[in-house]
Amino acid sequence: GTGFFSLPLPSAGSTAGSIERRLDTVRSVCHIAQKRLIACFQGQHGTDPDKRHKKLPLTALAQNMQEGSVQLSDETLLGKMLDTCGDAENKLAMELSQHEVQIEREVLDPLYLLTETEIPNIQKQRKQLAKLVLDWDSARGRYNQAHKTSGTNFQVHPSKIESLKEEMDEAGNKVEQCKDQLAADMYNFVSKEGEYARCFVMVSTSPL
């Protein structure tokens, strides 16, 4: 399919180009979204609901209301209302802290995995493939040169040619293995487009 995350599968001849640019763009967009989302939090990022709840401005407001209620006594109308409203604000603060933790778990964690693990791993695999292709080219060059030389007056021992052929074949196998792994990683990346899209849907439907 096509979409923001969709990428062409790699070939031995492809290097950085459009695939690298797309990976960089996806990583940049999601990384900035993470930072902006964290900036929207009222609680401390990375803490559990209880610790986060204690630090929320809403919690401080609730405590202030309840302290005011004690000072005025709950026998007065204002005192009773401050106590009731303080309790309500405290519950809202707890709901907010739980919601922020949920956003971290269901939105920030997947995006962090994408930007800091999955995309960097694909980029490393692409660099590794480029290196292996060069190694393969060198091995083929050595084998072809030895093969040509063996047909001239300068004889190359057959075992040497066989050794170079094995080296060339092994280098070729490494290229194919790396290509297969890279293709699998990229297919996995593309197949998760819907999951990453749902992260942003959740943010828009459950605003902070």
UniProtKB/TrEMBL annotation:
SUPFAM superfamilies: BAR/IMD domain-like. GO terms for molecular function: GTPase activator activity. PROSITE patterns: BAR. InterPro entries: AH/BAR_dom_sf, BAR_dom, RHG17/44/SH3BP1-like. It comes from the Eukaryota. GO terms for cellular component: cytosol. Keywords: GTPase activation. GO terms for biological process: regulation of actin cytoskeleton organization; regulation of Rac protein signal transduction. Gene3D superfamilies: Arfaptin homology (AH) domain/BAR domain. Residues 1-208 form the BAR domain. PANTHER family: 3BP-1 RELATED RHOGAP (PTHR14130), RHO GTPASE-ACTIVATING PROTEIN 17 (PTHR14130:SF3). This is BAR domain-containing protein. It comes from Athene cunicularia (Burrowing owl).
